[in-house]
Amino acid sequence: MRTVDDLGEIAGRTVLVRSDLNVPLADGRITDDGRIRASVPTLRALLDRGARVIVCAHLGRPKGAPDPRFSLRPVADRLGELLGRPVQFAPDVAGPASVAAASALADGSLLLLENVRFEANETSKDDAERGAFADRLASLAQLYVDDAFGAVHRKHASVYDVAQRLPSAAGELVAAEVAVLRRLTSDPQRPYVVVLGGSKVSDKLAVIENLIGTVDRLLIGGGMCFTFLKAQGHDVGGSLLEQDMVQTCRELLESAAARGVELVLPVDVVVAAELSEDAEASVVPADAIPADLKGLDIGPATVGLFRQRIADARTVFWNGPMGVFELTPFAEGTRGVARAVADIDGTSVVGGGDSAAAVRALGIAEDDFSHISTGGGASLEFLEGKTLPGLTVLESG
Ligand code: ADP
Ligand code: MG
């Protein structure tokens, strides 16, 4: 993959950087700035070398038109604080305001464009539509750097098409993410344990299928465990259940057994009638979930079991919270598993936006992990062995 060093002299040149600044917001306030912080090293390095930097990024899922709820303006302020330099903000995406601000940029200064998904063509399936928007983006700059690991699995104008229109390279974050994930896909140290959670089996099906070929143990918690429990013949009450995935889960259980992969499911579950901060929670065996209650976290016996199946691992990849960690009564499972993953003597990698946010929200030191990936979907697709459009375009020759 080409790196910034392959771009030659960058002092005085205008560099368009695609960053991943897709942070969670509540009432216009940033609740977790991890992705902004992860974007800083590449930006700082370019600025220190005298480049004129234009950053583009997306936030949330606006419907291809400006929507103040998804404005990057609060992100501009936070980015400025973290960089310790002023950040100019253009209220459009490669429109008149961006063009004017870009042409007035001084060496070593930075301009952030408004949410790139305010342009419908950013995510268009039509090559010509995306291309037309990519032309406008490319006209702002002379060089392109992709540092948005969380978006490299997307064939979007600001990720894929623009890279074909300018001399392009991977930023430090993309390079670091790829290096870590390559270690997981080629010859990981064993035992290699993968812990999966989060809300949906269907989101993670492909990665589970692929991992059954490479891992020694697969531990499954979170909302997705209930479809597996159902596949084993247990009733799951009001828990999250993907009925149309039950047969698939049955097949996955069989294929894991046939390949000698240990697939570990919860043995107890924290249940409650409702999802709320003051919910009355109790612990029940995983095969005896009352019909009128929902499973919202793995139970303490499961935390112990998972910890024990993680402790001797030399490589762990963890994606997806073990429960609804956003609410105090259902956070202990995720905390316990995060702690167990952090404590191993080996390579520990966390992938997934919510999982990374959980680590920070639960107060576990980020440095206790070998790597916290900024890309949820992107890291999973990498592990599935898919070709990622945003990486392919950065490869040499
Ligand atoms: P990531 O972003 O790390 O890949 P996901 O997006 O797949 O993770 O899943 C995160 C969400 O899963 C969290 O918002 C969490 O509340 C939810 N979740 C976890 N366990 C459960 C459960 N038992 N029932 C409902 N939702 C759950
Ligand atoms: Mg998520």
Structure description:
- There is one protein chain.
- The chain is of the alpha/beta class and 397 residues long.
- The model has no long low-confidence stretch (mean pLDDT 96).
- It is built from 14 helices and 17 strands.
- Adenosine-5'-diphosphate (ADP) is lined by residues 197-199, 203, 222-223, 240, 295-296, 319-321, 323-324, 326, 352-355, 376.
- Residues 197-199, 203, 222-223, 240, 295-296, 319-321, 323-324, 326, 352-355, 376 line the site of adenosine-5'-diphosphate.
- Oligomer category: single chain
Computed structural class: alpha/beta
CA(first)-CA(last) distance: 9 Å
Q: Residue ranges: pLDDT <50 for 5 or more in a row?
A: none
Give the overall form: elongated
Alpha plus pi helix count: 14
Number of E strands: 17
Per-chain topology:
Blueprint: E1 14-18, E2 25-26, E3 29-30, H1 34-48, E4 52-56, H2 73-83, E5 87-90, H3 96-103, E6 110-113, H4 127-138, E7 143-146, H5 157-161, E8 168-170, H6 172-185, E9 192-196, H7 201-211, E10 217-220, H8 225-231, H9 246-259, E11 262-264, E12 268-272, E13 282-285, E14 294-298, H10 300-311, E15 315-319, H11 332-342, E16 347-351, H12 353-361, E17 371-372, H13 376-383, H14 389-392
Parallel strand pairs: 1-4, 1-7, 4-6, 5-6, 7-8, 9-10, 9-15, 10-11, 15-16, 16-17
Antiparallel strand pairs: 2-3, 12-13, 12-14
Helix pairs in contact: 1-2, 8-9, 10-11
The structure holds adenosine-5'-diphosphate (ADP) and magnesium ion (MG).
